[in-house]
Amino acid sequence: MAPSVSSYPTIGGSSLNEVIACIAVIDESAPGPGIVTRATMEGNWTEFRTRFPNRPFCLLQPKRFQSHNLLIPAAFDGIHVRVDRDHGDPALAVDWFQICDLEGMRQQGIGAVSLFLDETDSLSNDVVESMKLFLKRVSGAGMKMRDPIINTHEDWISPFLTDFGLIPSSAPSDAPSAAPTAA
Question: Which of 79, 161, 166, 179 has the fewest CB atoms inside 10 Å of its own CB, making it the most exposed?
Answer without folding.
Answer: 179
